[in-house]
Amino acid sequence: MEKPTFKYPDKAAYEFVIQALAAKGITYHEIAHITYNLQTKYVPNLTIKECEMETQEVLHKRELLNNAMVALELDRLATEGQLNEPLQSIIASDAGVFGVDEGLALNMANIYGTIGVTNYGYVDKVKEGVIKKLDTDKSGVVNTFIDDLVGAIAAAVAAKIAHKYA
Questions:
Q1: What is the pLDDT of residues 43-68, one digit of tens each?
Q2: What is the C-alpha separation between 163 and 166, in angstroms, rounded?
Q3: Of 16, 72, 146, 166, which residue is most buried, by most CB within 10 angstroms?
Q4: pLDDT tens digit string along 22-51?
Q5: What is the DSSP string of 63-106?
Q6: What does the alpha-carbon distance between residue 5 and residue 24 come to, in Å, rounded to a whole number?
């Protein structure tokens, strides 16, 4: 049960996510570029600057931050070998039948409705830009969740923009 004196740490959650993304070399600019590529054919006057502003706004959504923190922390723990088996091996190998990474991503993509989910499915399939880099990284760092997280954020931003111009 939540304590009446608990104040949700929105600012700390935002900083946690932004710093964890930055540690992986990911900025909101890169996410905005993915969003721009998703939406520019539907919103011809869309600008990168608008996508960046919308990305910043979406990155402050509590629901997205909660899922992102869990995803980022699981990747970190798996990279450090801190998870118990068999979870450690499953996440470290990015097992295709695991699906929890996509489940968290779908929660994030859906914050602006089902259009975010369809956008996420497309982004997850084509793996554009930094998503592909994360997905194919063989440096020993676990990126099981972060590639899906980045795609989900871009998909949520694209959905927000789609609703704005509908």
A1: 999 999 999 999 999 999 999 999 99
A2: 5
A3: 146
A4: 999 999 999 999 999 999 999 999 999 999
A5: HHHHHHHHHHHHHHHHHTT-SPTTHHHHHHTT-TTT-HHHHHHH
A6: 34
